[in-house]
Amino acid sequence: MSDAKTKLSCVTVALHWAVGLTMIIMLTVGWYMAEFEEHWLYPIHKSVGMIAFVVILARVIWRIKQGWPEAASNYKAWEHTLSKIIHWALIIGTVMMPVSGMLMSGLGGYGLSIFGLELLAATPNPEEAGKMIPINGPIAGTAHEIHEIAGYVIMVSVLLHVSGALKHHFMDKDGTLKRMLGKRID
Ligand code: HEM
Ligand code: HEM
Questions:
Q1: What are the residue boundaries of the structural domains of the chain, listed by start?
Q2: Which atom of ligand 1 approaches the CA of 91 most closely?
Q3: Residue 132 phi, psi dihedral angles, 5° rounding
Q4: Is the shortest distance between the CB of 31 and ligand 2 below 6 Å?
Q5: Fold adopted by 10-180
Q6: What is the reported pTM?
Q7: Which pairs from 130-136 meet CB under 8 Å and 24+ separation?
Q8: What is 80-141 written as a DSSP string?
Q9: Percent with pLDDT over 70 in the chain
Q10: How confident is the model at residue 74, as a pLDDT?
Q11: Whose CA is nearest to atom 13 of ligand 1?
């Protein structure tokens, strides 16, 4: 069940792809719905994000227990440093996004529910239709800023991360990507 230089555990591989692909979809949908004001997508984005948070936490606990996997091949020093920075940014980002999302929506008065299952009720303003009474406006506002800025930082990190994976696969022709696809490498 542990990660080795020649083969990653199925837990590491399954959690990487479950969280990674969900994050890519959530970043895309989040940006799209906010940019084009597609309000029907908001409850879906929030519900999926909260469910993803459970898997994200499982992944973080797994990483803390296991440590980082050893690099699959002999990376150059700069590659090693850059990949470490990006891996940290990605894993912290996966926690920051759902936490800031929940704080922004929950404390903003919009409530929290997972596909109709209410976790926190919304607090609508009786005097202004469609407006909410925030539970804590300043924290909700800060969380909103964090959700937006961290979103862009993670998008850039994912681009660098995927470019690195493709460079290792196609240019260096080492086992970095194959190992993350569950294969044994020499
Ligand atoms: C198509 C997209 C992706 C590809 C091809 C990909 C590929 C890889 C590969 C090959 C590794 C192993 C690197 C090594 O051994 O040094 C890796 C590790 C990692 N990836 Fe991705 N990745 C993708 C998306 C993501 C996304 C979206 C996230 C998070 C937001 C992410 C987070 C991580 C982290 C934290 C690691 C370190 C090992 C671990 O914690 O399991 N990846 N990825
Ligand atoms: C799981 C990871 C998540 C990712 C990767 C993600 C990503 C994003 C991104 C990139 C945006 C666009 C930001 C902007 O340009 O304003 C966004 C918007 C938003 N997200 Fe998330 N999100 C996640 C989880 C959540 C959760 C759990 C909630 C709430 C429970 C949430 C609530 C929102 C809301 C309300 C907006 C719209 C903000 C606006 O209209 O300005 N997100 N999200």
A1: 10-180
A2: 35
A3: -110, 155
A4: yes
A5: Fumarate Reductase Cytochrome B subunit (1.20.950)
A6: 0.96
A7: 132/108, 133/109, 134/107, 134/108, 134/109, 135/106, 135/107, 135/108, 135/109, 136/107
A8: HHHHHHHHHHHHHHHHHHHHHHHHHHHHTTS-EEETTEEEE---B-TTSTT-B--SSHHHHH
A9: 100
A10: 80
A11: 176
